[in-house]
Here is the input.
Amino acid sequence: MLGDSFFEREKVHRRSEILRDTNMEAGHRNITELLKQWSAGDHLALDQLIELVYEDLRQLARRRARSLPADSSMQPTALVNEVYLRLVDASQVSWNDRAHFFAIAARLMRQVVTDSARVHGCEKRGGGWQRIAIEDSNIPAAKQELDVLALDEALNRLASADARKAQVVEL
Here is the structure.
């Protein structure tokens, strides 16, 4: 009797795994079909595509935002929105599949973060200078933070040496 319930639970578990895998595969196919329709000029396909991939893009953006310096104002939602705007301009891309889409999205996120770091650190905005009141006698030590521009340069050099390794690091 005890064994029967175990086998029944195991059967139900296997069925749910099969359904989940089938749904996931169908979702991947839908994404690929929408990408191909969008490449062919169907602008409604982009809206449907974004509905399907939005949460995945936000998860990717959250991971990217966690690696930013503490003083960064870049939020995951803003990062996804900026990537969306750049994707709309990238209508000439010939999309292969879901993996290709997310690789491009990850690269666009990196570009958005790098562009933001450039604007934040440019000389006309004060570069790396910090405003300190004269009354403060304690000068804070420089924080060791992620240098986004140096990281971008390193990833570009890695991409020129080995594109696959650069893609793995980017994702």
